[in-house]
Amino acid sequence: MQEYIYYNKNGLDFPLSEKIQVASSLDDIKEKSFLISNSKDVNSEFIASEIDFYIKNSQDDLSKKIQNVSKLYEINSIKFDFAQDIPQSLEISNTLMIIYDNLEEFNSFSKNLVKEEFELYKVESKLIKKIKNSIGNFEVVVDGGNKDIVLKTSQIVWFNENLEKKRAGIYDPNILGVDNTLDIVRKNLVTFSFKKTITYDKSICQYHERKDEICSKCSDVCPTNAITKDEQNRRLVFSLVDCITCGECVSVCPSGSLNSANTSRDSLYEISLFYKDTKPLIISSKANIENIKVDLKEDVLPLCIIGDIFDETMLLTYLQVSGSSLIYFSSDISKGTLESIRIVNEIYLKKHGKIAVYLVSNEEELNDALQKQEFIENSYYNFNQNDMKKREVFSQRLQKIVGNDDLGVVKTGPNIHYGRVLVNEAHCTLCLSCVGACNVDALFANESDFTLRVNPSLCTACGYCEAVCPETECLTIVYDEMELNPTWFKESILAQDKLFACVECGVEFATTKAIEKIASKMEPIFAKQSPAKVRSLYCCSNCKPKVMIIEELNNNAKYSN
Predict the structure, then answer these.
(1) Class of residue 184 by CB neighbours under 10 A (exposed 0-12, middle 13-18, buried 19+)
(2) Global pTM value
(3) I want to staple 90 with a disulfide (CB 3.0 to 4.6 A). Which of 136, 389, 516, 550 is the partner?
(4) How far apart are CA 89 and CA 84, in angstroms?
(5) Residue 319 burial by CB count (10 A; 0-12/13-18/19+): exposed, middle or buried?
(6) Which residue spans within 147-260 are E strands per DSSP?
(7) pLDDT 10s digits, 371-389
């Protein structure tokens, strides 16, 4: 397999790198396969539609065009190398359910069916109570009068479908047309193919197996049945066959536990290195660029991505690596990306007095943004962010912007959250329940000086530390505020204590506040029972039984005498 092919039946009026084969006839390459192509007509693993868009519209000089076309092939090669969107398939039987409001709708569809082509169920829409699962394995709960009936079917044709969230395998002829719907259900017979679209790291998920539900934003924003919640066990349930690669879940995930299988954060970082001293034009798959005609100014280089997967961390990465403002093109932007753009723009306006990200949704807005896009003086910054957590990367990049300035406060929410943890030190016993609850390392203990510390810039304001804190009026969170000053990035001490030494052996075994708290509650009770029980409150686990045994022996000896 050769790596790169450029195909255009009209040829190309300038040369390309020798690494790229150029063809003007499909006959010349019909027996060959390639890694990256600019055209769907070529047998290739990866289609880079931005290549033709760049060639057609760029105002770069010839030498830079040649260089940038090579860049675009290399960028897409990185996407391919990092991609984890593994093809998958489901077996589909010929069971088909038609849900209708009136018999005329049913007849309009069923008259086009070949006899015995499908094992057919017909159900009036008013009888539908619940639909479980997805294509290939639907379970439809139908009102049967005296009791509910469960019907199993592989596909559903539903006139005036009214589910709150879309599911693969349910088709509405009033939207698609009867003929088109019939073509789809026939095409799906035997095997339905799809790709893995999301990767998931449950170890940093802020929903997974937590006592309280403090984050389920991915499920909330998902427009389909691709991510749901197992509320009993506090686990996310994925039905990737239903995923439409919109990017909603990836863009709002606070910890970075969700990632695009097509273009991961690691791959986006590697790709960002191609954009140094270049003006990025990020193009979501929701934007159709095939017929767009614009004047791409010098140094503008497009990047096509699947869905709106850019969050505040990745936006800041491309802004700082390029040293330029960027344009983001999407016709239906995700909630997380939209909010990330607002946050980043507020930061840049406070620091540089300039717009960082121009959000556009059509050709006219794109043309306008291209006139305004510019390099931003003293904004370049980069470091190796591989293997770093999402919030760690954002913290380090934001710290570079803030420097020694105090730029005020940026409000966050409702989909992206930052905050500051506050602790009433008088009530804190350093039990460290909050540290165990924090999976983004914003809260941590320093064993050298027995302190509870926080790095506010890493906090996702999930609230789990507040939920698990056993003390009253101890830990609170200032929600949805990002403080743009140097202290935001520094470790600060929330509480401190000294170790308590066992009154018997002198071994330090707990914090003084913890012992004092327990003793204040238990000493009045134990005082009525025995001096040894009172003393045991101030003993380590090894000495507690010894104190009690000695008292018992002494009592026995006294009675025997």
Answers:
(1) middle
(2) 0.90
(3) 136
(4) 15
(5) buried
(6) 148-153, 155-158, 170-171, 190-195, 198-200, 227-230, 235-238, 258-260
(7) 999 999 999 999 999 889 9
